[in-house]
Amino acid sequence: MADDEETAKWDPVFTRQFKNLVGPLVQKYFRAEVNGLSALPSSGGALVVSNHSGGVLTPDVLIFAPAFYDAFGYDRPLYILAHYGVLMGPLGAVFSRAGGIEASRENAAKALHSGGVVLVFPGGDYDAFRPTRTANTIDFQGRTGYVRTALATDVPIVPVVSIGGQEAQLFLARGDRVAKRLGLHRIRLKALPLTFGVPFGLTTVLPPNLPLPTKIVMEVQQPIDVRARFGDDPDVDEVDAYVRGVMQAALDRLASKRRFPVLG
């Protein structure tokens, strides 16, 4: 349910402190780059749509958010749509104060109407646990709710692509069939991955292996004004295909520049 409490939990003072503490550590560990932030609209709502990488300990938000605030300051919040389990966990209160809100169209619309920027990973855990062999494939599992949210709130879609995160460990299998058989879809979990890494070797979600210091590069693409490009009554699937096509082309270009796994 959307209400003022979800967006009101964002604390700019706390966010600045958290960013200054954690941001440099994450940036140095992953030698992270976020390029093209000038493409983001300088004011008003925008829906940032990104692929999701790295499994349980995904660094996507901890890389993108510090770069966003360095570029735009703290007058406009960055909200991150998250699985409710993340917000219920031991660090849920911390994440909420730093802009995390439960993933729903209602909450996204509330945040966008307030003038905030919303970061969404449409592929969710299905994307974050994709096998390393398909690391450079954009696949949202047919999820198109982000397009409907952009249309309902009349904000641009800003695609972002990330490369390198799926090299943080070896993702062997997504485990989506196993997850379905175990009924995990009832709690909105679509994957039960099999991974190999350090220090636990072969494991599933728990215990999580520590990520290798793989070089991660994120790149912001040009905003997409959906109605300007597709008309007043756009076909949602057509828009989704276009957005994913833009992202796939950008990811292919970044992949062609990457010389070695982990090293970048």
Automatic annotation (TrEMBL):
InterPro entries: P_lipid/glycerol_AcTrfase_prd (IPR016676), Plipid/glycerol_acylTrfase (IPR002123). Keywords: Acyltransferase, Transferase. It comes from the Bacteria. SMART domains: PlsC. The keyword Transferase applies. GO terms for molecular function: acyltransferase activity. Coiled coil: none annotated. GO terms for cellular component: membrane. Residues 46-165 form the Phospholipid/glycerol acyltransferase domain. Pfam families: Acyltransferase. PANTHER family: MONOACYLGLYCEROL_DIACYLGLYCEROL O-ACYLTRANSFERASE, TRANSMEMBRANE PROTEIN 68. This is Glycerol acyltransferase. It comes from Mycolicibacterium madagascariense. The lineage of its organism: Bacteria, Bacillati, Actinomycetota, Actinomycetes, Mycobacteriales.
